[in-house]
Amino acid sequence: MKNSGITAALSLVLCMCLFCGAAFAHSALCSCADNGDGTVTCEGGFSDGSSAAGVKVFVRNGSDRTLVRGAMNEDSEFSFEKPTGYYMVIMDAGPGHQVEISGDDITE
Hints:
It is built from one helix and seven strands, in the order αβββββββ.
C-alpha cells in the first residue's frame, strides 16, 4: 500500500510538470520596421510558430490616445501611416500575450 501512495504522488507531480509546461508553451512576438515611405509594418507571431492572424494591434500616442486600431492580416502583418511625435505599437493577443514597441525603437 505504501508503494502505491508514492507512485500516485510521483504521477501527480509528473502530470503537474507536463501541464505547467503546456501553459507556457508560447510567447507573443512582434517586430516593426519603418518602411521609409511614411508607413510602418509590424509582423507578429508566437514562439511556437503559430500565426498572429487576427490579433489586435493598437497604435497609441504619448497621451495614451489610440491613433490606429486594427488586426494582423492573414500573413500576420499590420501596416499603418507613421504618426508624428511619440507613439507606441501594442500587439494584444490577450492576457499575458501583449507586446509593446516604442516608436523610438522602430527604424528603417
